[in-house]
Design a protein that fits this description.
four-stranded antiparallel β-sheet, 510 residues, 19 helices
């Protein structure tokens, strides 16, 4: 298994709409983590997918005059197309309509039943069809509208299977108190602990009025409530009940990325289900914030929903990925505007990173014909100290999903490289034939800095960094197990044999 394993998940996205910036944000973050851990040489399982059951899908299909399966087969393509455009390197795309998932849901339910946490009863409450969520009258503020989406609720009374969540309150609270990093960031952890302390009620986990779902074993008049079915996807992907070696490899290392709107399902209901089944709990549930658009909440009625496809077409995939990960501290809310994207990527990618690479390679091409040999004495305490500090910060912040801070740390190398050019002034050294060795040494150091930056920035901008690696004359990007090996001043080539320089990130002129 090498250096260990890492299992990262996004939520499975509900196929009731087109993918938007929120979907892109979570999935990009998971992809960055997966790429980084692969570079560390770890065995990685990165899963995303689609949630395809429930009343909302059933109703939408009926309105269109097609079957629910035909509807989800159409909509899922939008997600697959977007992930391809965004260079999302998932290892598994799970669909809840797959047979393997049905088998896992049935097996997990049977396990909970054997452990004594399932019972049958009657449920009466208020139900929000768009959110697929039940609400008690105690959770409503007098008005019969959904606290999450503001739409009218439907009164529902039906026979149901219950999960005995209330019996797990003290165990879950004890676990949370002993594992303060289980829910991140800290503000979300505090929210979850407060919610659990306020008292947990048993959860209805089946419906009789919805046919589009996974049938309850031995009682096909019931289908599983969409959230119960959806949460189990993480076990399906990990091989629960079907591949014990895979399950033992990845499940203990699972980390869930979610939006803050679905935190309680993932940080209360889901860990309680796992405690009841006597399975290990995830390492972490990280809930990120929401994106507004130019200060306003995204909504179809306002016509301000950001289509990632359009942004990518206009500005390129790596600029979009970089902006999502750099603009906002992961966990907080962010605001999207094209102006902000242009300003951020022009400043960071064009004027700093791209400028460093282009200035260096242009001088190397002009002064040394594009061939820069490694100097015989290649030690510089200042460069070595800086790289050690940057590597340490990168590891620290990646462990905490601090993507903006990772990039901020990496950019210390970028800024130092640009200052180094100004201080050493290679254009002056080039005028003195006796300074050629010093000139070569300086340009080699800068190209080596570009090489190291290509590896460090790769998880965020894979396409551009692969292109940079090739432009440095290093062939195909090394990928697997290359972070420790390549992020070192000892790993530079004997000769940088450069391609003719072209701008890595041309400025966007608005």
């Amino acid at each position: 298994m090498g250096k260990g394993s890492f299992y990262i998940t996004t939520p499975i996205y509900y196929v009731n709409d087109v993918p938007h910036i929120g979907h892109a944000y979570t999935t990009c973050a998971a992809d960055v983590l997966a790429r980084y851990h692969r570079l560390l040489g770890e065995e990685v399982l990165f899963a995303t997918g689609t949630d395809e059951h429930g009343q909302k899908i059933e109703k939408a299909a009926l309105e269109k005059g097609i079957t629910p399966q035909e509807l989800v087969d159409q909509v899922v393509e939008r997600f697959l197309d977007l992930w391809k455009k965004m260079d999302i390197s998932y290892d598994d795309f799970i669909r809840t309509t797959e047979e393997r998932h049905t088998r896992t849901v049935e097996a997990f339910f049977s396990l909970l039943n054997e452990k004594g946490y399932i019972y049958k009863g009657d449920y009466e409450g208020w139900y929000c069809v768009p959110c697929e969520t039940f609400w008690t009258e105690g959770q409503l503020s007098g008005e019969l509208i959904c606290p999450d989406c503001g739409r009218p609720l439907e009164k529902v009374r039906e026979e149901t299977y219950f999960f005995a969540l209330s019996r797990l309150q003290e165990r879950l609270l004890d676990y949370l108190e002993r594992h303060p990093s289980f829910v991140m960031p800290e503000s979300r952890y505090n929210e979850v602990v407060s919610f659990v302390r306020s008292g947990l009620k048993d959860q209805s986990i089946s419906r009789t009025g919805v046919k589009w779902g996974v049938p309850v074993p031995s009682d096909p008049g019931h289908t599983f409530y969409v959230w119960f079915d959806a949460l189990v996807n993480y076990l399906t992907v990990a091989g629960f009940g079907s591949d014990e070696v895979k399950f033992q490899t990845f499940w203990p290392q699972v980390r869930h990325l979610v939006g803050k709107d679905i935190l309680r399902f993932h940080a209360v209901l889901w860990p309680a289900m796992l405690l009841a089944a006597e399975l290990p709990l995830p390492q972490m549930v990280f809930a990120h914030g929401w994106w507004t658009v130019e200060g306003e909440k995204m909504s179809k009625s306002k016509g301000n929903v950001v289509d990632p496809n359009e942004v990518i077409e206009r500005y390129g995939v790596d600029r979009f990925r970089y902006f999502l990960m750099r603009e906002v501290t992961f966990g907080l809310d962010g605001d999207f505007s094209e102006k902000a994207l242009i300003e951020r990527t022009n400043a960071d990618l064009s004027d700093n990173f791209g400028n460093l690479v282009h200035r260096t390679s242009s001088m190397a091409w002009k002064y040394l014909g594009g061939k820069v040999k490694r100097p015989s004495l290649y030690q510089d305490e200042e460069w070595e100290k800086l790289l050690a500090e940057v590597k340490s910060s990168v590891a620290f912040y990646f462990e905490r999903f601090g993507f903006a801070q990772v990039l901020e740390s990496i950019w210390k190398l970028v800024h130092f490289g640009n200052r180094y050019i100004d201080q050493k002034a290679p254009w002056r050294l080039n005028k003195d034939p006796e300074k050629k060795e010093e000139l070569t040494s300086i340009l080699y150091r800068l190209l080596d800095c570009a090489r190291i930056l290509a590896v460090m920035v790769y998880p965020f901008c894979p396409r551009s960094c692969s292109r940079l690696w090739k432009a440095l004359g290093l062939g195909d990007f090394p990928g697997f197990d290359s972070f420790e090996r390549e992020v070192s001043w000892e790993s530079g080539p004997e000769v940088f044999n450069l391609e003719k320089p072209t701008p890595l990130f041309p400025r966007i002129e608005n």
